[in-house]
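User: I'm writing a tutorial on reading structure tokens. Could you give me a worked example: one chain, its sequence, then its tokens, then a sentence or two explaining what the tokens reveal?
Assistant: Sure. Here is the example chain.
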Amino acid sequence: MVPDRRLRDELIKFGRLCYERHLLVAMDGNLSALLPDGSILCTRAGCHKGFLEDDDLVVIDRSGRKLRGAGNPTSEMQMHLACYEERPDCRAVIHAHPPISIAFTIANVSMARCVLPEVVLTLGTVPTVPYETTGTRKLADSLRPYVREHDAVLMDTHGAVALGTSVLEAFCRLETVEHTALITKTARDLGGAKELDAKEAAHLRSMGLKRYGGPPAAVAKVDQPGADLPAACVGCSGCANPHPQGIAPKSELRMARVTSQPMAPSPLVEAAIAQAVLRALST
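And here are its predicted structure tokens:
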């Protein structure tokens, strides 16, 4: 178990990294980690993560009651508590507002697709939780079924949540989500984002769960067809996924049929020729 002092240093370091990596701005986001005694170390409400200091951290119990520290715990602590309750293997949670990932939810484009091999291998897919008001128990409860199955999720128009067995692992997963969003958006801007072959996606995910582990609920599906991947990844979607819910942009292409045949003389052209002939004969 990581000692209290080292864990404090890690939250401070990765809070600053979240800011430097443009995963959050101003007073956005919050970080937490489990202490050896089972209590939770978390960022306080209203602090800038890019300038975190030791005084910006507070300790709460598993019901959210503050035990020590200056200020109040983050207003979104219910979200963190839900993650720890649903995932006994989770030791750290980071909530941030990665801009490109959030843009995907606003554009109503799902990132629960299989595009990058290394992401499928280590993270699986990233689902989007339907919108709920920020900072509420209703939002925290809406996360529960998603974090049971996934290590990182998006919240519609809001942000991302990443879980890990350490603060470093949670940060890496958060960073991977935004990196995937950037690559996918760039591919879409260039004309389209192709997805992995269904069989290859299933093979990669099964291999990744066996090699790296994952949510217990996902690991339990490792030998099932498609492992824990959604139907969008393992079902045939035609060629290069022209799928209405897919990540490829919708095409507005209209086809025109071209045929060849003898050109019929135009009545206007015939009349103009006749007039020209008459003028020539009268001169």
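What the tokens reveal: The radius of gyration is 28 Å. The chain has one domain: 1-283.
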